[in-house]
Automatic annotation (TrEMBL):
The organism of origin for this protein: Maioricimonas rarisocia
Enzyme Commission identifier(s): 2.7.11.1
InterPro entries hit by this protein: Atg1-like (IPR045269), Kinase-like_dom_sf (IPR011009), Prot_kinase_dom (IPR000719), Protein_kinase_ATP_BS (IPR017441)
Keyword Nucleotide-binding among UniProt keywords: yes
GO molecular function: ATP binding; protein serine/threonine kinase activity
Keyword Translocase part of the UniProt annotation: no
GO CC annotation, single: autophagosome
First and last residue of the signal peptide: none
Species lineage: Bacteria, Pseudomonadati, Planctomycetota, Planctomycetia, Planctomycetales
Binding site for ATP: K52
A matching Pfam family: Pkinase
Name recorded for this polypeptide: Serine/threonine-protein kinase PknB
Keywords: ATP-binding, Kinase, Nucleotide-binding, Transferase
Length: 299
């Protein structure tokens, strides 16, 4: 908790950066609902980086949802995350246009959403290993006392070396009572837990639900419920049980299927209590099935 106190109190004066003077923008590599990302060269050291610039108006609207709670910025959160399955943030600050920006390591790879849709040999061979890595990143985030609130394939990159990288922390909040209180509903509708959609009290188990939806999609190329484009349409089916993954994926390992379905439980008390326990089941299955990289077999 001392870290959070220091984080909330520390408001250093940040020198504003003129993006186009500091960085050589090579090309756009991504655009989220609240930001744009460029592949860029940092002129200070010649390093290739991913430069993320947040939309000023949309960021302000998000911050207004947490008035009085002193929610840290995405940059303040990301700069303190150090895990092999989380993209490394090198710097953050404010542009001359008063936009927040983050400088991150550039990861050569593809989005997980692309592999989910493609379902090629690479995906089928490595998906359980990908699932384990996603879980390890989420477990680390939870151990650091955060709630992600927007875990989904869109926010995950798979490197050319099959290393998972969680890349977006725009909706992350501290795992503290004020941020777990009922009312605030942010995230991607199709991956949101029922209690979040219904504006009930939340905790880290909303991330476990999103993780399970992601795992389900990685195996089936579809969502556990009919896809929805609004919170209202999600509410229409969220009280119904999810599709059974066993009926959609012939021959799926029972331990893997059971782990995913438990994570999809509508009531948080029926889900896995922690990400660690869910990941342990995936890892145990992967070891039994011989689907772990050799360097991980005795990890």
């Amino acid at each position: 908790m001392n870290f959070f106190k220091q984080l909330f109190r520390r408001k250093p004066r940040i020198e504003k950066i003129e993006i186009r003077r500091r960085f050589d923008l090579i090309g756009r590599v991504g655009q989220g609902s609240m930001s744009k990302v460029w592949r860029a060269t940092d002129t200070l050291g010649g390093r290739m980086v991913a430069l993320k610039v947040l939309d000023k108006a949309k960021t302000l609207r998000l911050e207004q949802r947490f008035v009085g709670l002193e929610r840290p910025t995405e940059g303040e959160i990301a700069i303190n995350l150090h895990h092999p399955n989380i993209v490394r943030t090198l710097e953050h600050g404010i542009t001359s246009e008063d936009e927040q920006f983050l400088v991150m390591e550039f990861v050569e790879g593809v989005g997980l959403s692309y592999l989910v849709d493609l379902q090629n040999e690479r995906m089928q061979k490595n998906r359980l290993w990908y699932i384990i890595q996603i879980g390890e990143a989420l477990e680390y985030l939870h151990q650091q006392n955060w709630i992600h609130r927007d875990l989904c394939p869109r926010n995950i990159i798979v490197s050319n070396e099959d290393r998972i990288k969680l890349i977006d922390f725009g909706l992350v909040v501290p795992n503290t009572p004020p941020f777990r209180a009922p009312g605030n509903r942010t995230g991607t509708a199709n991956y949101m837990a029922p209690e979040l959609i219904k504006r009930l009290k939340t905790d880290q188990r909303i991330d476990i639900f999103s993780y399970a939806v992601t795992c389900f999609e990685m195996y089936t190329r579809e969502l556990p419920w009919p896809a929805a484009d609004s919170f209202e349409s999600v509410l229409q089916h969220i009280n119904q049980p999810p599709k059974d993954i066993r009926k959609l994926v012939e021959g799926i390992d029972e331990q893997v299927a059971a782990a995913i379905m438990k994570g999809l439980a509508l009531h948080p008390d029926d889900r896995w209590p922690t990400t660690r326990r869910m990941v342990n089941d995936f890892r145990e299955a992967a070891e039994r099935l011989g689907q772990l990289p050799r360097t991980q077999e005795t990890a």
